[in-house]
Amino acid sequence: MTTLGNAETASSAGGQRATYPGLKGKSVLITGGASGIGLATAKGFAAAGAHLTLLDINADALARAGEELKSAYANIGVETVCGSTTDETAVESAFARAEARFGSIDILFNNAGVASNKPTLELSPAEWRRVVDINLTGVFLCAQAAGRRMTQKGSGVILNMASMFGVSSAPNRAAYCATKAAVASLTKVIAVEWASFGVRVNALAPGYVSTALVDELARAGRYDINALKKRTPLGRLGDPSEIAELALFLASDSAAYITGQTIVADGGWTANGYM
User: Fold this and answer.
1) The whole model's pTM is what?
2) Which residues are catalytic?
3) Mapping DSSP to helix (H, G, I), strand (E, B) and coil, where does residue 188 land?
4) Is residue 9 domain-resident?
């Protein structure tokens, strides 16, 4: 697995990584920022010179991520807040901490979420509510907190984490697919509402990405990595740095005319109807 370092290094897919000088000095809040795609994206923004506030429920991983970022990127500020995106108090605390340290919130990456893979007939109401609370309500609460601030100052970017299973579907994922489809729809609604205030809102919809969680599920026998690669036209899983690159682009001035969209990065999975 590759990692994001200097913005000039080559990406895992080959070629030179794009640079976005307009991100320098921006204040970025990332939920679920302590690991996986969230941490890779934090490193990407840090390499571009943006200040970071990470909100994550995993205290140990959050502490490690904060120290790693502070050590690797001494020219930026890093704040960490331990809490759940489903907790309005924790969300407000994270936004307040970012504003106190960096003056504003310029970019929100609404990344926190959970997987759910269980036959629909076996899915309990409690399990359904947990996925809805984290994958949808948490996204709403953070987007609303960001929107209140961004609409007042007349600028901002919100990026919501959807999934390729929010624009397609798969068995045994009723809660996951439903919540990710709802995130894509929510993205359109608030993008239209807040466009006149200078706020852009888009969603990212990754396919299978090589993260510690995916590796853990593979070791537990719940994922067959070789089968996933075979099903993907590009023949491999995505890398967290590639999703981070998409987030940086959408947050940058290069995407100034893009709002209300769900951008799929899945190696061709949803285009492939052949099993």
Assistant:
1) 0.92
2) 176
3) helix
4) no
